[in-house]
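Suppose you are handed a protein chain with no further information: no name, no annotation, nothing but its sequence. What can you learn? This example shows the usual starting point.
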Amino acid sequence: MNQENTAALFPKGDQLPKEWFTGNAFLSPLVSKDKNNEFSAGAVTFEIRARTNWHTHPKGQVLIVTEGSGFYQEKGKQPQIIKKGDVINIPENVEHWHGASAKTAMTHIAITNFKEDVQVTWLKPVTDEEFNEANHEK
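A reasonable first move is to predict its three-dimensional structure. Written in structure tokens, the prediction is:
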């Protein structure tokens, strides 16, 4: 009898601040910066329509999608659909956003490097118009 385990890989975690996210997004911390690691890692769960603000990382970031599907978009480029199993390598100081789609939730592991004590610079929210355009909604 083959029964697939449908339990989440990591717990949902705590809700992330509304000043940096639109909709409901949650973080389950996995690895903190310490004397051995110049990065942090966490599982981020985005409910349907949830997304980050536009932001940059001074030393880049890697996203590994573990559940669902959503979007990744760099400023001035077309949004990309990202789905379970995808790995996105975000270069340093590239303005971007990521999150769930209008129809599906998404979870990814975010591995974010530090430059001194900074790992992210938060910018303005992704507008509903920008989000709807990514989702091909009017």
